[in-house]
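Each record in this resource describes a single protein on a pair of labelled lines. An example record follows, reproduced without changes.
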Amino acid sequence: PISEFCLVIVYLGQSLTHVSSEFTSACIFAFVITALAGPVMFDAGDRLHTLLGGLLGRLGFKAPQGVTQMLGGQHAYDIVLLGFHRVASSLYFHIEQRQPELLKHLLIVDFNVSIHPRIAERGAAVKYGDVSNMETLHHAGVSHARIIICTIPDDILKGTSNLKLLKALRQMNPKAKIIVTALTMADAAEMYAAGASYVSLPRIEVAESLVPVIEAALTDSMENYRSGRQARVEDPASRQEVMP
């Protein structure tokens, strides 16, 4: 896009007769167009990527690989984690601490390549991919997984929903155990009807975890509860997760 600084340079160039007035007018026109189109393009970026991803690939704009493994590797993973956000980060930490033997069977698919090195150095495989793109997931080996998990709620997912993802995954891998996340009870019921093996409802799970906290507060045993909890799940300040 044309920036304000670019216009300043162009005006200076025109005043010094380095560029013509026609060139300056063209730059101003381009600035107006990009200023108007930019916000719309950013908002629709995920939808545009879904529509144009195949064309961009044929034109040579390939998915970034960096430290990630190339899509389409031959190794099949038993557990696939689709998307990597806060809940996935905490789940990954628990697996690493409590069942590290599962790490070699775990594949994480996420588009944020900046966190891939931190994921990979802890033992799990990680591949670049847009979880809303079924072709990408197929090449990543999701069709051979035994367990497929999406911990990202619909208000964070881009370009798809847990229900849409579930339906597509069920067609791709009919035998897999598929775990998805719902925001409402109605969503959860619809997901079970669509073939979900388990639906996580964070609002209910958080509410359940707060009941013993309230009981501890009522009985003046909060310190005992906190020390017991820290013994079970570790002090949050000392948890070295991928996403703090």
Notes: The mean pLDDT is 87. The beta strands are 79-82, 106-110, 125-128, 147-149, 177-181, 198-200.
